[in-house]
Amino acid sequence: MGNLIRCGLLWACCFMAQTAVAHEFWIDPARHVLEPGDVLAADLRVGEMFTGSAYPYFVDNFLLFEAGPVGALAPVRGRTGDLPALSLVTDAPGLWLVAYEPTPRWVTYDAWDRFVLFTDTHGLDWAQAAHRDRGLPEAGFREVYDRHAKALVAVGDATEGRDRRLGLAAEIVAETNPYALSGGGHVLLRMYQDGAPRAGGQLDLFLRGSDGTVTRHVHHADDAGRVTVVVPAGTEVMASFTTLAPVPGDPAAREAVWHSRWASLSFAVP
Predict the structure, then answer these.
(1) How many domains is the chain built from?
(2) Measured between alpha carbons, how far is 89 from 66 in angstroms, rounded to an integer?
(3) E-assigned strands of the chain?
(4) CA 208 – CA 215 distance, rounded (Å)
(5) How many CA atoms lie within 13 A of 121 on its CB side?
(6) DSSP label at 226?
(7) What backbone phi and psi angles, to 5 degrees, belong to 130?
């Protein structure tokens, strides 16, 4: 038991350290298309450009971990230290959904250029002037962050299923079922922030082709928070966005002065 506790603490420390420099957190299914009775296995990953480290199942490190047919999600049960974090026998055909929310974490910015890189990358550069206007230091300040990840997989015939809103504080919903496309096509995605559409927000789209090549595409939503993306057949997809808001913390007391939320949705177009 002592070793398991130490592993959990090490995981939490590594998670905080790596997310300080990485840009994405996502659910990474081993296979996006399965048959009933197959094992749905998925890793929890932190990294960049669809490449990152996998993290194990630790019940104290998440607020939400559910999986199942879109209309019948159930808590994911696992053993401490399980890798992959999700391993579940599918028992019904249709579109399946996995959702995961880790406990909130924090990061300390030890240099101003790291904050500039983060905000520039995610379309949040307004925060640089706002930070200075608040009289905050350019190093040694903290940010608290939340992660909200979803993944869609097909079990048998999933052409009639539809993604749905779960009420996450930051959430991406696929209004097009990607597994109903034939030969690739257009996928309509919608971003939500605090229950409302995220009008004009930046959406990052990562595409991994059958040859393993990964490309990043930046989109901006319409007034209803929607983005239409074109996905070729045989492509794995990870869509994400990040929000940022000031919080009235005292940097001298090592309190967070910013709060970010990260949303992701992963799926495939067969």
Answers:
(1) 1
(2) 14
(3) 24-29, 33-34, 39-48, 51-55, 62-69, 74-75, 86-89, 94-102, 105-109, 141-155, 170-174, 185-193, 196-197, 202-208, 214-220, 226-231, 235-246, 256-269
(4) 7
(5) 17
(6) E
(7) -60, -40
3-class SS of residue 151: strand
Position 42 confidence tier, pLDDT thresholds 50, 70, 90:
very high
CA distance 177 to 2: 45
The model's pLDDT over 192-246, given as tens digits with 9 standing for 90+, comes to 999 999 999 999 999 999 999 999 999 999 999 999 999 999 999 999 999 999 9
Q: Quote the domain boundaries for residue 239.
A: 2-269
Q: Which two tokens stand for residue 35?
A: 């048959």
Tell me the one-letter amino acid at 38.
Answer: D
Residues 6+ apart with CB under 8 A from 36: 90, 91, 92, 93, 155, 156
Mean pLDDT of 164-190: 97
Residue-level pLDDT at 21: 45
CA dist list (Å): 154 to 149, 159, 178, 270: 17, 8, 9, 10
* pTM of the model as a whole: 0.91
How high does pLDDT run on average in the chain? 92
Neighbours of 54 (CB within 10 A): 14
Strand 33-34 and strand 141-155: the pairing is parallel
Query: Helices 112-121 and 126-133: crossing angle, nearest 10°?
Result: 140
What would the pLDDT profile of 112-157 be if each residue is shown by its tens digit?
999 999 999 999 999 999 999 999 999 999 999 999 999 999 999 9
Give, in degrees to the nearest 5, the angle at Cα 79 between 103 and 74.
65
